[in-house]
């Protein structure tokens, strides 16, 4: 996957990923219009399909709302690379088909750089600077879930 980088710091919580005032609208396309709104008002307007979020520690902390990864995915985010994730956000992201990579890339990217990620090989490249790093790839079964669009489509395929 390849995309422009959106860079954020530590402890980006689910309340800023999708503010609670939008949770009564169950249309994910409408929620996506408000993704990251309280942290970065330009995000939902300017994010492009495949863009990549690079963040620090504890991304997705706070409440366990699965609307947070859904809003990011439907806004067009191709992956989230963070130093660490809140466990429930991490698993919710995989379950809905949003790739998450636990790797400290904060020193490798600036906002607007172009990132190229190979999930299977565990390689991340900053195409803007030419810098390359390796990360521990996800286990094969999680990569399969992501490739199939999330846990529900994966399960439907397996149990037909």
Properties at a glance:
160 residues, alpha/beta, Aconitase, domain 4, 30% helix, 18% strand
Please, could you describe this protein's structure?
- The chain has a single domain, classed as Alpha-Beta Barrel (Aconitase, domain 4).
- It is globular and about 45 Å long.
- It is of the alpha/beta class and about 160 residues long.
- Helix 5 links the parallel strand 3 and strand 4.
- A seven-stranded mixed β-sheet has the order 4-3-2-1-5-6-7.
- The mean pLDDT is about 95.
- It has seven helices and seven strands, in the order βαααβαβαββββαα.
- Helix 4 packs across helix 5.
Helix content: 25-40%
Poorly predicted runs are: none
What is the radius of gyration computed over CA atoms, rounded to a whole number of angstroms? 15 Å
Name of the level-1 CATH class: Alpha Beta
Instruction: Please describe the biggest sheet, giving its number of strands, its sense, and whether it closes into a barrel.
Output: 7 strands, mixed
CATH topology: Aconitase, domain 4
Compute the number of strand runs: 7
State the end-to-end CA separation: 30 Å
Number of structurally distinct domains: 1
Proper CATH architecture: Alpha-Beta Barrel
């Amino acid at each position: 996957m390849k995309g422009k980088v959106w860079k954020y710091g530590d402890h980006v919580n689910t309340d800023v990923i999708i503010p609670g005032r939008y949770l009564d609208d169950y249309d994910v396309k409408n929620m996506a219009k408000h993704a990251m709104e309280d942290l970065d008002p330009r995000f939902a307007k300017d994010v492009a399909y495949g863009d990549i979020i690079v963040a620090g520690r504890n991304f997705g902390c706070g409440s366990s709302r699965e609307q947070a990864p859904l809003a990011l995915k439907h806004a067009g985010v191709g992956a989230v690379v963070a130093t660490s994730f809140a466990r429930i956000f991490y698993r919710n992201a995989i379950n809905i088909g949003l790739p998450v990579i636990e790797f400290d890339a904060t020193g490798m990217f600036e906002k607007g750089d172009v990132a190229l990620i190979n999930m299977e090989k565990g390689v991340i490249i900053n195409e803007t600077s030419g810098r390359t790093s390796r990360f521990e790839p996800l286990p094969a079964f999680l990569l399969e879930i992501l490739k199939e669009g999330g846990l529900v489509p994966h399960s439907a395929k397996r149990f037909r």
